[in-house]
Design goal:
By secondary structure, the chain is mainly α. It is 77% helix and 0% strand. Helix 2 runs antiparallel to helix 3. It is globular and about 55 Å long.
């Protein structure tokens, strides 16, 4: 990487406005998919749902979310980020709002299925936007900033959401969060533009982005979907290594997004006020991990010029920290438990850099499909983890083996990055020169 590239200073900063948009969208995305975790104890009592069945409800989102990753990526490659994101955020917010009117297991499952379908294109779109709007030397930081929205929303809005549930009911949580997302859909449609269509972007900023491997070629060909291209992508160890690693990180994330409040209330016997306070701390730690990982990765890239060192080091370290979640089984103090869970979630936050790896390796004409494949594998954790934990709790009446499962999965992810991922570079399609 040349000194002049690193030192170049574009005259405009339009890319950071775009980054703010996808950061807000990501925050709303995670509030919408995880508000069920906050509502779960009250909702279970109201609708008569036991622990094993609640595991199926938590998992239901993951079924359609994972199944729609490749179709969502195809749609993204065909229609672009603006249309795809607008439809995605509007419909996922509508299905969130509808959960507030669920009257039983059937309607709740139906709305969770709809939520999964609608949210599927979000992260492939985020990856495509970062790969288009940002040069390589800024992508990890950009990914860290938008990914922090996964945790900041829950960290800072959790006390408000717990208060809403106490003051009104669990129904209010879904209605308020869903309505906010629908409003954001309009904001997105008004303000999002591709780089060359953005009124506030200067030519020097476009040149800076292009010099770092961003932007689509003008008039770039939109490749039709083919299973041959999917097979070509799956022939690369980079896709497999990154996907297994992200699955492992997501297993930790899914625990916190689904069963964590129940764990504090039932396993640790905390009252709801205490749960509301303690639940914030691991999410703040995770947000810090996201930002620290992104900053450290881009710093390593500038210092070493090696994408392998810069991308792999924070992710492997994060997965090893996430595996420490199992040690919560061996302490009695509530403070010690929260400290351990915060360290584990800090590490998981660093695993969000997997999306930077995908931005770096995806063939430019297939960024949507590549992101869809990656997110499909990663979000199998959204199906498997809630079910495994639900079955463990039903069978043992305890979370001990559940935490062991999460910790062991994180170790597998670290091994995948160490031994399977291989060299990080942009994958070539037949007849395409490496960039």
């Amino acid at each position: 990487m040349s000194q002049s590239l690193s030192a170049a200073r574009p005259r405009s900063r339009a890319r950071f406005g775009i980054l703010a948009l996808i950061s807000i969208g990501t925050m709303i995305n995670y509030l919408d998919r995880t508000v069920l975790g906050i509502a779960a104890p009250s909702l279970r009592a109201d609708l008569g749902i036991d622990a094993a069945t609640m595991g199926w409800v938590f998992s239901a989102f993951g079924w359609t979310y994972a199944a729609m990753q490749i179709p969502g990526g195809i749609f993204l490659d065909r229609f672009g980020a603006k249309v795809t994101y607008f439809l995605s955020v509007t419909f996922w917010s509508l299905f969130t709002l509808l959960q507030g009117f669920a009257t039983g297991l059937t309607s709740l499952l139906l709305y969770r299925f709809g939520l999964g379908v609608s949210e599927a294109p979000c992260f492939p779109a985020n990856s495509r936007i970062v790969g288009t709007w940002f040069p390589q030397q800024e992508r990890a930081t950009a990914t860290g900033i938008y990914t922090v929205g996964e945790y900041i929303g829950l960290a800072f809005f959790s006390p408000i959401l717990f208060w809403l549930m106490a003051a009104y009911s669990w129904h209010a949580l879904f209605i308020v969060v869903g309505a906010a997302g629908i409003l954001f859909g309009g904001v997105w449609w008004i303000f999002y533009r591709e780089p060359r269509d953005h009124r506030s972007v200067s030519q020097s900023e476009l040149d800076y982005i292009a010099a770092g491997g961003g932007l689509e070629a003008k008039g770039a060909e939109k490749l039709p979907f083919s299973w041959a291209n999917v097979g070509h992508l799956l022939s690369y160890r980079q896709i497999w290594g990154a996907s297994i690693g992200q699955f492992a990180g997501n297993a930790t994330l899914v625990f916190f997004l689904t069963w964590f409040p129940t764990y504090l209330a039932t396993e640790r016997h905390m009252g709801w006020v205490k749960v509301g306070f303690f639940a914030v701390l691991p999410f703040i730690a995770a947000a810090t991990g996201v930002l620290a990982g992104g900053f450290f990765s881009d710093l390593l890239l500038k210092r070493t010029g090696s994408a392998n060192i810069a991308r792999k080091t924070p992710i492997i370290g994060g997965l090893l920290l996430a595996s420490l979640i199992v040690t919560a089984n061996y302490v009695d103090s509530d403070t010690a438990v929260i400290a351990i869970l915060s360290v584990a979630f800090f590490g998981q936050g660093m695993v969000g850099l997997g999306w930077t790896v995908i931005s770096d390796i995806a063939p430019r004409p297939l960024m949507g499909v590549t992101g869809g494949l990656f997110n499909f594998a990663a979000n199998l954790a959204g199906i498997i983890t809630p079910l495994v934990i639900g079955f463990i709790i039903s069978a043992t009446g305890s979370f001990q083996w559940a935490l062991a499962f999460v910790g062991a999965t994180a170790l597998v992810g670290a091994l995948s990055y160490i031994f399977l991922l291989g060299d990080i570079h942009r994958i070539e399609l037949p007849g395409e020169a490496r960039q």
